[in-house]
Amino acid sequence: MKFVQRDMGAAAEASSGGGDRQLAREIGIICAATTALLLALYFSIGWLVDFTLPRISAETEVAWFREFVPATTATNLKPEQTAQVRKLQDLVDRLALGPGVPRIPFRVVLFDTDEVNAFAFPGGTIAVTRGLLEKIDTDIGLSFVLGHEIGHFVQRDHLRGLGRTLGRGIVFSLIFGGGGEVFTSHTANLLDLSYSRAQEKGADEIGLRLTYALHGQTEGSDALFRWLAKKQTNSTGLNLLSTHPQSESRIADLEAYAEKLKRESR
Description:
With 266 residues, the protein is mainly alpha-helical. It has helices at 19-52, 58-65, 79-95, 130-135, 139-155, 157-176, 181-187, 197-215, 223-229, 247-265, and strands spanning 107-111, 118-121, 125-129. It has 2 domains: 11-55; 59-265, no CATH class.
């Protein structure tokens, strides 16, 4: 059999058109499609987390994070600090008896830092800083702060923030590399979790409601916000304000909600 080579013309090209220009066009299409897919994955994480959260019980959360201890937890406490933590634990235990609070073993720990702040961690851990205790020392003022953190547990804000942080970290690792390091880097940096203003307002209302249920009054609940309002909102060490509503606005909202609680209790 004699082989006869034929000219296949444009059909000989694996892709339509052929040439460098066509190749660049196809690469552009692939890059655009990949980018669109990753962006869709990135923005779907919030939906996926919101869909999954109701299916994770508080008991399951505690089982998952029972052994978790924030890296900055103070150890070798001084006697007066031990007494402070016990007092806070007693307040949390009584606040947690309020309506709507998940029946999980809340635990109070101390962060030995000047920063004025408090945190809610998955599994029921509430961290309070030394700086906050130096500014707020009344039972009602502390009850509101602790009740506010319990409010984040009620709303599952801490798990929602953790899920979104991990999920988006995974997407970033797919785009920029990094592999499994994303898990350790993000779980070790839980302090970076922040909440939306709506979440903060909801936690404020829950904190005030729990404070009112425990003490029968709310006067003094806004002590932290009144102290913060005197400071520059973006001053060093006031990270509490960086993602939170303005203190003046929160004070006004608390006063309005306190009046509502009083009317409902009559």
